[in-house]
Amino acid sequence: MSNHSNDKLLLEAKKIVSQCDRCGTCLPVCPLFEAKNVEASSARGKNVIARALTEGGLEPTPEMLAKVNFCLLCRACVDTCPSKIATDEAMINIRQYLVNKTGAANTKYKAMGGILKSRGMVKLTAKTLALLRKLGLGSVFPHGMVPEEYTRAHFLAAFSGPAALGQKAPPSDVAVTASTRVAYFDGCGMRMMFPEAAAETLKLLKAGTQPMVKDNVCCGLPHLAHGLRDEFLELARKNISIYEDADVVVCDCASCGGTLKHIASYFANDPHWKDRAAAFSRKVMDLTEYLAKVGYTPRQKVDAIFTYHDPCHLGRGQGIKKQPRDLLRAAGKFVEMKEADVCCGGAGSFHMDYPDIASTILDKKRANIEKTGAAIVVTGCPGCLIQLAKAAKASGGKFKAMHISQVI
Amino acid sequence: MISEEIKKKIRGIVGAENALDSDLDRFGYSYDASFVPLLPAKKPDLVVRPATTEEVSKVMAVAYEHAIPVTPRGAATGRTGGSIPLQGGISLSLERMMKIVELDVNNMMVWAEAGVRTIDLYNACAAKGLFYPPDPASWKFSTIGGNVAENAGGMRAVKYGVTSNYVMGLEVVLSDGTVLQTGGKAIKNVTGYNLTSLFTGSEGTLGIVTKVLLRVIPMPKKRGTLQLMFRTLDDGCTAVHRMLQSGLVPAAAEVMDRFCLEAVAKHRKTQHDPAIGACIVIEIDGEDDEALALQTKRMEAVAKECGVYEFRVAQSQQESDELWAIRRGISSAIASILPNRLGEDISVPRDAFPEVVRRIATIAEKHKLTIAVYGHAGDGNIHPSILCDLSKPGEEERVHRAVEDLFDVTLSVGGTLSGEHGIGITKRPYIAKALGESGVKTLGAVKQALDPKGILNPGKIW
Ligand SMILES: Cc1cc2nc3c(=O)[nH]c(=O)nc-3n(C[C@H](O)[C@H](O)[C@H](O)COP(=O)(O)OP(=O)(O)OC[C@H]3O[C@@H](n4cnc5c(N)ncnc54)[C@H](O)[C@@H]3O)c2cc1C
Ligand code: SF4
Ligand code: SF4
Prior knowledge:
The complex is a heterodimer.
Chain A (H helix, E strand, L loop, with lengths): L5 H12 L13 H5 L7 H12 L7 H8 L6 H5 L6 H16 L4 H11 L1 H5 L1 H10 L17 H8 L2 H5 L15 E4 L2 H6 L1 H12 L5 E2 L7 H5 L3 H14 L5 E4 L2 H13 L7 H9 L1 E3 H7 L11 E4 L6 H4 L3 H10 L1 E2 L15 H4 L1 H18 L3 E4 L2 H13 L5 E4 L5
Parallel strand pairs in A: 1-2, 1-3, 3-4, 5-6, 5-7, 7-8
Chain B lengths: L3 H11 L4 E2 L2 H5 L18 E3 L4 H14 L3 E4 L16 E4 L6 E5 L4 E5 L4 H9 L3 E2 L12 H7 L6 H4 L6 E7 L5 E5 L11 H5 L8 E8 L1 E2 L3 E9 L2 H13 L6 E6 H10 L10 E9 L2 H17 L4 E4 L3 H12 L1 H6 L4 E4 L2 E2 L5 H14 L3 E7 L4 E8 L6 H18 L18 H20 L12
Parallel strand pairs in B: 2-4, 3-4
Antiparallel strand pairs in B: 1-2, 5-6, 6-10, 7-11, 8-9, 8-10, 12-14, 12-15, 13-14, 13-18, 16-19, 17-19, 18-19
Helix pairs in contact in B: 1-3, 8-10, 13-14
The site of one iron/sulfur cluster (SF4) has 15 residues of chain A, from α2, α3, α5 and α6.
């Protein structure tokens, strides 16, 4: 913890949580409080614990680390809070603080963080998965999560009648000038678990430009979220350098996109990196954001009913809600589900730490999806996709889960 | 401290997972939404979360036997420290009792368990075309039991009254575990003392409310929102009074002073027009659009007589939602100006509203403090907010004296310490001044009769 002294972390958290007046507005929106309605699991509860810690009223203990780990970082609370208290940021800071202080860095997270950090290892997908399983992390990246049937070819065969297939949507008429250098950000989740979908993203990009494919490293969110901040900063610096020659960096993972867009704020006080980080964050775009900008029209309109799940890091995280829906409306029939923006319970590795709670949350999501009568639930984040694929399985085949790049 | 043996007994009643005693779980039940300092934490020894009246009764019997303090708790959104377990013991949280037991459409009444959220009750009734009017600004997260225990008010009080106007009956567990039912569905009822009224607003000091019988009314078919800007607060209050006198009853009439408006503008990054000294947001309701149009026209005429500066009718649901969101968010907007905010909740005869606001300004000046004022212009319930920085030397003392002056002014015009938030801990020191010796003595006699061991929410009200 060289440049991030613990006092500073505590101070940063204090600035946030001391503004919470305990009003309780956030109580009904926190999915975890709904699943386990004990005060300490709510956003208010966690903020107040953090506040007492920063004011010396509570001791840093493993119990406290468990409480602050019990957060999806979904920002539903931030959205509804009249004072916009950034509970998620406070939790990240306090996790880091407690990890430093108690030396309790979950060895589990360290191992995972180490794997995601090394580009080489991530490439060896099969090996990585085997290793993850050995470490007891198999459930984060369940193998066979995207069986063959979810691929684009099958999707088209299953849902587009011959007529629909015939009327190919005209190619996008927005000229992406030859000088716009578009690059793809190849996120770990997409690469390891949904390579089919990542390939579709590249195809979509190729329709209008010649995307640069880089040897990027992990966006660093898993590290940041679990008290490995130095690793996060190191990864961020690498990515900033890697993409220096691109004008636009397109992400098909909501969590990567959200994290990369926020990188600037983590370097605001670093004279060496401040400007480069800011320039980098500015050019990051979600896939749907990019497609909307270039006026992309889906390749075909099919006879399928879609519904859409807002990834926390896209809807609340980046304010992107309209673009994916517009694209889906153009690609088929779109039905909005109830509480589309409520977290699916995936939240990085949360679902492996608290499988029961995560499944309670997911059951509700599944019921909401089923109510729409949609054949496909679409989303834009591999983390959510894992959860939704589980829900699809639990629904006994009533619907399928797909990444947006696979259906447009 | 509660012995392991007693804990074991209680776990046997509610299940181990509903009797929490880890340090942080207990800490979670040590505060509410009041400005009572968080630290040192007043942790309960045990958090007990019963699911049925029977469980509550059994837990109370154990507590009674061993003289363990019990503090009932809903969602801890109280503003006066009511659910803080001052003397440790048991925090009895009703949050798991969330069932709407019966919705009797014929009699237009509903039985709900204490832990039902106000908004859930509202929605369940609304689905049947029925209307539960009391709407504390916290209605999305407070519980109906908490509303009854505090006799919560809301913005619609001017036309529809407060919680107590809708409580027809209660199921209450007394301090020794006895289950009592008060009132009932009969609309006229003079059999014995009115115990329903006694328990309503008793802040958890007389018994645990487990179920509530509420009356509801037909849902108004149409609603509209008006925004009236005045040069002075006096003009605005006069307008509201004249409306009421001429039989024009707004469903809500909320006033904000200049300071609030500036804070809102700052919060929302807009500009405040310095000519405007007060804003009143009004809700109207009625049978159809014509009825609303007629009310609007008549209100506009009255407002013009009183020199209204700007009269706006919200043109869409979105616009009216936005206006109400501004009103609901006001406490946060002003709280963000200085580190500490002490919100009060005085209530005065309606015509004293402008006078009291003027005298609040004098108090602010005298003690060199900033006091923002907003409140319910229609019913005389004012929320002065003292904005301060308690870390500054001497500030706390000045705030303290300002609050005393504020209460003196309130009482001198025939007002009262609390309109809707209750006394709890924060207003305790002033109760004798407000009720007089005989008043306090009578409350004491009631308390003694119902809670002879003094185990229910000790340290509150007096
Ligand atoms: C942002 C905000 C806005 C608010 N706006 C309003 C408003 O407009 N009008 C208004 O009146 N209040 C308002 N309040 C105050 C508060 O929400 C109300 O007092 C509410 O009724 C408290 O409900 P609760 O469930 O949170 O009760 P708690 O805070 O948990 O408890 C309040 C008191 O009731 C007792 N109690 C709770 N449940 C029971 C029970 N089942 N049996 C016996 N005693 C019980 C407790 O011991 C305590 O003394 C506001 C609060 C906030 C934070
Ligand atoms: S970020 Fe999500 S899970 Fe975490 S406290 Fe807020 S609402 Fe709850
Ligand atoms: S986080 Fe915001 S909404 Fe939640 S209790 Fe604190 S101030 Fe209220």
